[in-house]
Amino acid sequence: MVCRHAVAGRNLPHAGQRGQPDRPDRAVEERAPCRLGNGRRRLEGSERRGDRLRPSSPGGEAARTGNPTLGDKVTGTPVDRASGRLPGQTAEAHILSDLVDLLAAGRSGVLATVISTDRSVPRHAGSRMLITDDGRRIGSVGGGEMEARVAAEADACLAEGTPRLLEYQLVNPGDGDPGVCGGRATILMEPHMPPSTVLVIGYGHIGQAVTDLAHWLGYRVVATDDRPGTLDDPTAADLVVAGPVSEALEQVDLTPRDHAVVVTRNTDLDVESLVCLLTTDVGSIGVMGSARRWETTCQRLRELGTTPDDLKRVASPIGLELGAENPEEIAVSVMAQIVALDRSTAR
Description:
347 residues; alpha/beta; Rossmann fold; 6-stranded parallel beta sheet; 5-stranded antiparallel beta sheet; 10 helices; 15 strands; elongated
């Protein structure tokens, strides 16, 4: 560490001009060692503790240079370049990071964990394997035929959306066992999927309230409205589409796990929205409005060729009967119905 002292009125040379006197009235800076009390000097880049010197910045040379070959920039801890893991971080912990990344990308996977073992088995309890929605395996629960059977269960586990327990005897392949180690393993299969999407069509007062509450509940929210400027203000939606419903559906692939909330300002927009939505695989469709308004909408849809089975896919009025009146209360009613649907299918 050095201190800078301004020294005025001295004939010091310019930088790069040896022996050339400076103007006597110009102040320049002179570097001098910083002296502590009792005449002790502090050495640059270090602190004195007793008779030993230690680096003043965490991570030592690696932290100061930022050289990744010397270690982590903050802690100075070496990093395994091949796996991306810090020393002591298990492969199982790395699998959990991969699962987080998978979900963030909007994809699904099944986490298989060995939860108990007996006698001789290839992997200990706590071993994990992630099977992604495209069949890729990360980690291992034992390899061989047992692991192949576990991976084969992943598609069904994702389709049902519920965990399952698998038990394997590893004794006699002649009896159908997937190994001869002599032990037994129990494996928990856990499906992990990204949040369901709530598509909010119509961004008036109720649409805004539904968007806010759905976001707070952890859903992925897509908001759309055909009115210019309606969606210009900040919104809790993850995706905003200003334009007709057809444009929103070009950007969103609705699945049976997703929900559509139609809260528009008239029956023309209800009809336009439903004609588009009924061509998708969306799990639930709800339309705001009175019984009279819904009957008008149904009549228009029948004239356009909508079948009775398609009309049964639509719930109107949307939401649970709570006696709700203001936008926030209506949003609670709407989202309570959606949560109830999700919980009923998860049982």
